[in-house]
Write a structure and sequence with these properties.
Its main location: other. This protein is of the alpha/beta class and 532 residues long. The longest helix is centred in the last third of the chain and has 20 residues. The N terminus and C terminus are likely disordered.
């Protein structure tokens, strides 16, 4: 696979049709006769953003469409928003290619592009195996290359609680693998959120309850349900105890903090895989069930808890995403709730999507995209051939499918194998969620993905000492047409410069610095150059 991509790159066979994900509409010069090498003084990209500010944080309704026209002397990129400009710059970076002599080329191309789905996400599990912040940031970089726009941070779970809470510091002190080295401080979380924002990526945190909470217990005595062996406590604890007022007081305080720390409108509240065994064994819960008229239907008890939790979240002005069991168990949720479909072993996921959308809820698909599951060979093709709207339903139902997420669960994934397990496989899902439904040719996808894989490898592995024309790689000359500054974030400057020309990637994240108004600017890149 790497050999094919390298051959394409060296031969210069990288037309607009090689872009990943494939743009919606591409018109390029036939046969490449209008392909020209960039000249040092006229290789310019004019970027125009209609909205004269950075829109704060990206959200579900952010405009990501853009138009891009390239030629030998001047290229034009226009978008309504900074987020569309970011997507367009990623495309532009892939249109620049270099021959074996080191000369950069640009084909004459017109592109009109926009995403097919608004939610294009990637889930990372940082509880089962702790992932260093640098690994998360590197993943965000590659997500941006693939035009993903949501980082679903499954930050805590049964094995560990690495989130360092200001309101409840004992949660990480007693629940993390290591309370010093294996936690995410408030500054860490802010760094991840801002790093993602500069790449047009939302961060949606997940605090899954009432199940998947074993790690919460040591730092929050009384929160979890005591399990019984007959009439005697067994010393084991189960899910969150749903019958105590103190439970809801705790959740009120914790999610007040979480709602403040994570600025996105949505929180993921989990709600999956609740084991009722412990609840059944507890005499106090049994008595509560009788008083409430629940009988022996513990799904009703789960619904009781979830509904109270959702009321808490709503009081903070937040929306929520829940795993499909919340819907399956009949919990009453707000009409704008997003139901995350993940189960394949309970029947075809297409039937679940049909049920969710028929009930009027928005659906998010992950069931066929669990990338932690691997098989021999090119299993990206299986993910690539999924069609999210392939279910029996009305056009109105299909409008309710807002997108999907690739999931990388951490049972067998840590920092040592995260990148090769994710990429380029996740790219197949990125294209399925961005590109037109008709983009399905596996041979064409293989050609483009092979080339893109080589680009990713050079981006991730380029040595920090690389140079182009004797200058640090990726030095970008910026001419201001209006009062606008595109400054690379200080700590990222060197690595960003090294990524830019040596990997053919323009470092785009300087577009949206805090307090910077980027309306129209001109970017000049050196055209010629060997690198070491």
């Amino acid at each position: 696979m790497a050999g094919l991509g390298l051959a394409l790159l060296l031969l210069g066979l990288v037309p607009a049709g090689a872009v990943w994900p494939q743009p919606q509409l591409v018109r390029e010069s036939p046969g490449g006769e209008d392909t020209r090498p960039w000249e040092p003084l006229c290789a310019e990209l004019l970027v125009s953003v209609a909205t004269p500010h950075c829109d704060g944080f990206p959200d579900m309704d952010s405009v990501e469409s853009y138009k891009l026209s390239t030629s030998e002397d001047l290229s034009l990129l226009s978008s309504e928003s900074i987020w569309g400009a970011l997507r367009g710059l990623e495309t532009f970076s892939q249109l620049i290619w270099r021959d074996e002599d080191g000369t950069f080329y640009l084909n004459k191309t017109d592109i009109v592009d926009f995403p097919r789905f608004a939610h294009r996400g990637l889930l990372l599990d940082t509880s089962r195996h702790y992932l260093p912040v640098r690994a998360i940031l590197e993943t965000l970089d590659v997500m941006a290359y693939n035009k993903f726009n949501v980082f679903h941070w499954h930050i805590v779970d049964d094995p560990s609680f690495p989130y360092e809470s200001a309101a409840f510091p004992e949660l990480s002190r007693k629940g993390a693998y290591n309370p010093v080295t294996h936690v995410y401080t408030l500054n860490d979380v802010k760094l991840v959120i801002e790093y993602a924002r500069l790449r047009g990526i939302r961060v949606i945190s997940e605090f899954d309850t009432p199940g998947h909470t074993h790690s919460w217990g040591p730092g929050a005595p009384g929160l979890l349900t005591p399990c019984y062996a007959g009439s005697i406590p067994s010393g084991v604890h189960g899910p969150v105890n749903p019958i105590l007022n103190t439970t809801y007081q705790f959740m009120t305080e914790l999610f007040r903090e979480v709602s403040t720390v994570f600025p996105d409108f949505y929180l993921h509240l989990g709600g999956d895989e609740v084991d009722f065994t412990c609840w059944r064994s507890n005499p106090e819960i049994q008595a509560f069930m009788q008083r409430m008229g629940f009988g022996q239907d513990y799904a009703k008890l789960e619904s009781f808890y979830i509904q109270r939790l959702l009321d808490i979240i709503s009081s903070y002005g937040k929306g929520y995403v829940v795993w499909q069991e919340v819907f399956d168990n009949g919990v009453k949720v707000k009409p704008d709730t997003i139901i995350h479909v993940w189960r394949e072993n309970a029947g075809p996921y297409q039937q679940e999507v049909a049920r969710v959308t028929k009930a009027g809820y928005r659906a998010l698909l992950s069931a066929p995209w669990y990338l932690n599951r691997i098989s021999y060979g090119q299993d990206w093709q299986t993910a690539y051939q999924v069609e999210p709207l392939e279910f029996e339903g009305s056009p109105e139902q299909k409008e309710l499918v807002i997108g999907g997420e690739a999931c990388m669960w951490g049972e067998y994934v840590d920092v040592t194998n995260l990148t090769p397990r994710l990429w380029p496989r996740a790219g197949a899902i990125a294209e399925r969620l961005w590109s037109n439904k008709t983009v399905r040719d596996l041979q064409d996808a293989y050609r483009r993905l092979a080339n893109f894989r080589c680009t990713l490898l050079s981006s991730l592995l380029t040595p920090p000492s690389c140079t182009c024309n004797g200058l640090p790689a990726g030095i970008v000359h910026i001419v201001q047409l209006l009062p606008a500054i595109w400054a690379l974030p200080g700590p990222l400057a060197h690595s960003a410069r090294c990524l830019a020309l040596c990997s053919r990637h323009v470092p785009v994240w300087g577009l949206c610095e805090v307090g910077v108004i980027a309306m129209t600017a001109r970017v000049q890149l050196p055209s010629d150059g060997s690198h070491s």
